[in-house]
Amino acid sequence: MSPQRPTTLAAIERAVWQELDECVRAAGHGWRVATLATLDGGRADARSVVLREVEPGARRVIFYTDARSPKVRHLEAHPEGTLLLWSRELGWQLRLAVTLEALTSGPAVASRWARLAATPAAQDYFAPLAPGSVIERPGTERGSQGHFALVVASIVALDWTEIHPEGHRRAAFDASGARWLQP
Ligand SMILES: Cc1cc2nc3c(=O)[nH]c(=O)nc-3n(C[C@H](O)[C@H](O)[C@H](O)COP(=O)(O)O)c2cc1C
Questions:
Q1: Which atom of ligand 1 is nearest to the CA of 70?
Q2: Which of 44, 129, 150, 162 is most buried, by the most CB atoms less than 10 A from its CB?
Q3: What own/partner pairs with CB < 8 Å and gap ≥ 24 does 1-10 have?
Q4: Residue 72 CA: which ligand 1 atom is closest?
């Protein structure tokens, strides 16, 4: 956590990117497990995902998923989504308006899969059936093929809210610049 509350919009934006950068390396950071909201036809859907990488320069965050999962179908039909992050320690909520792209092949996928394939986490991508399929009973069957996908979330706008006993604060950061908002 930042030792002092940042006071200017510029300092808040810097601190937000610093926390994003840290959360992917700190297992206990509240922002590491984010809620991803997508559109399933005319209905909102949401689920937890683990943020794996942050690219501040490109304003992108990356998470991993099973290429067969419903969320991939959602984002292919409607790439506009929201990532919602909350850190109790910081008292900071971050709503990221994102454009989502799922990658299933190419060098960016191959390099991550090569790293992951040697770890127990690879098991998640070898399930014989797609996530959400009805099964007889929970099990650990392993299919022959990995279904790894990388999802790149390009950040279009950040909406930051701080919950604080001395007064809540909220600010927006997007292509039009930075501004304070009524919380
Ligand atoms: C703490 C936690 C972390 C999770 N991380 C991921 C993740 O990084 N990627 C992922 O695809 N699913 C992750 N899941 C599972 C999803 O929340 C979801 O249940 C699953 O991916 C199916 O989602 P869908 O039907 O919307 O595609 C996580 C679940 C929990 C509880």
A1: 27
A2: 150
A3: 1/89, 1/90, 2/90, 5/162, 5/164, 9/171, 9/173, 9/178, 9/179, 9/180, 10/178
A4: 27
- pTM of structure: 0.96
pLDDT by residue for the chain (183 residues), tens digit each? 445 899 999 999 999 999 999 999 999 999 999 999 999 999 999 999 999 999 999 999 999 999 999 999 999 999 999 999 999 999 999 999 999 999 999 999 999 999 998 899 999 999 999 999 999 999 888 888 899 999 999 999 999 999 999 999 999 999 999 999 999
Ligand 1 center–CA 173 separation, angstroms:
28
β partners of residue 86? 93
Q: Ligand 1: residues whose CB is within 6 Å?
A: 33, 45, 47-50, 63-66, 69-71, 131-132
Long-range pairs, 22-25, Cβ under 8 A, ≥24? 23/51, 23/54, 23/85, 23/87, 24/51, 24/52, 24/53, 24/54
Calculate how far, in angstroms, residue 182's C-alpha sits from the geometric centre of ligand 1: 32
| CATH, domain 9-181, list 2.30.110.10, 1.20.1250.20, 3.40.50.360, 3.50.50.60 | 2.30.110.10
